[in-house]
Amino acid sequence: MLIRHRPDLTDNDVTDRGLYLRRREFIAGAAGLGLAGLGGVASAAPLAFTKGFSTTEKPTPKNDITSYNNFYEFGVDKGDPAQNAGKLKTRPWTVRVDGACEAPRTFDIDELIKNKLEERIYRLRCVEGWSMVIPWVGFPLKDLIAAVKPTSKARFVAFETLMRPSEMTGQRWDVLQWPYREGLRIDEAVHPLTLIAVGLYGETLPNQNGAPLRLVVPWKYGFKSIKSITRISLVERQPPTAWNLSAPREYGFYSNVNPAVDHPRWSQATERRIGEFRRRDTLAFNGYGEWVADLYRGMDLKRNF
Predict the structure, then answer these.
(1) Cβ neighbours of residue 122 under 8 Å, at least 6 residues apart?
(2) Residue 19 is inside which H or E element, if any?
(3) How confident is the model at residue 115 (pLDDT cuts 50, 70, 90)?
(4) Model confidence, pTM
(5) Phi, psi at residue 211, to the nearest 5°?
(6) What is the per-residue burial (b if ≥16 Cβ within 10 Å, else e) of 67-97?
(7) Which of 13, 125, 128, 205 has its Cα between 20 and 30 A from that of 226?
(8) Which top CATH class is 7-296?
(9) CA-CA distance, 24 to 68, in Å (whole number)?
(10) What is the pLDDT of residues 189-235, one digit of tens each?
């Protein structure tokens, strides 16, 4: 299924300020992807930078993106999600957004995708040492959060994946504590780079990639970008997260891409880009440090890994 979005919103030429401004004006005019009528979300504000939403690197072929996945709800091998995720029913689908907010509500997925969407070409770095470049289609998470009017007690954002073992057969095994949970600090969640993706390569998001909607946080290791979301809660305390619960010495809450901090069982200094033969150097914050490093000013990133 094709996702309807304006072709002139592509980020293939991120250094073109005119193109950038037209995109931002378009989003602002849409008042946050049409969410204004769903709860008072503010228009998108101008950003302090005019590039950075997309990389100019060549995207990974669609077949690789959709066939090489980590999605343990459908199996632990890379090919399992593509083989097994077809069982997942993504309609009807709702997302509950609640917690420390004035206007909690339940959104239907079709409400969220029927209006204006953006294309963002982001690098994806897996904690296992491989990477891709993916042309996502989606909208900023900050717009969805603004729609429910968070209170001053909203210091973190907790996410939860669908729990449906009849279709997500990997949930029948205790590989992780189900349902899958993830979390961000509130300033990370409302950062302009943080995306809710509903598609890739201009088409509806495939089941194996996290349909019908998933989080994308491009400066963090891939497991932070939780898939098939059914609940988003604004909370006061740091929420538990699946991999941190499973192996806290190996998977910290922040999990920012950091070539200087190795995984206990392998180096993070280099990565294997899917489709390439040679390994390449891993970039701090996956190359997005110019826009996100200030979020962690004063923090010990070896301790807060």
Answers:
(1) 54, 55, 133, 134, 136, 195, 216, 218
(2) helix 17-29
(3) confident
(4) 0.86
(5) -55, 150
(6) bbbbbbbbbeeeebbbebbeebebeebebeb
(7) 13
(8) alpha beta
(9) 33
(10) 999 999 999 999 999 999 999 999 999 999 999 999 999 999 999 99
The residue type of 305 is F
**Distances 120 to 24, 42, 43, 176, 200 between C-alpha atoms, Å:** 13, 21, 19, 30, 9
Distances (CA, A) of 7 to 22, 32, 113, 159, 192: 12, 18, 16, 31, 21
Strand partners for 159: 182, 232
Query: CA-to-CA distance for 41 and 46, rounded, in angstroms?
Result: 15
pLDDT score at 25: 33
pLDDT at site 3: 61
Exposure letters 181-210 (e unless 16+ CB within 10 A, then b): bbbbbbebbbbbbbbbbbbbbbebbbbbbb
**Residue 79: which of 91, 71, 90, 89 has the closest Cα?**
71
Three-state SS at 209: helix
Determine the Cα angle at 214 with ends 294 and 74, to 5°: 125
Model confidence at 11: pLDDT above 60: no
Task: Using alpha carbons, select from 206, 204, 207 the residue that is nearest to residue 169.
Answer: 207
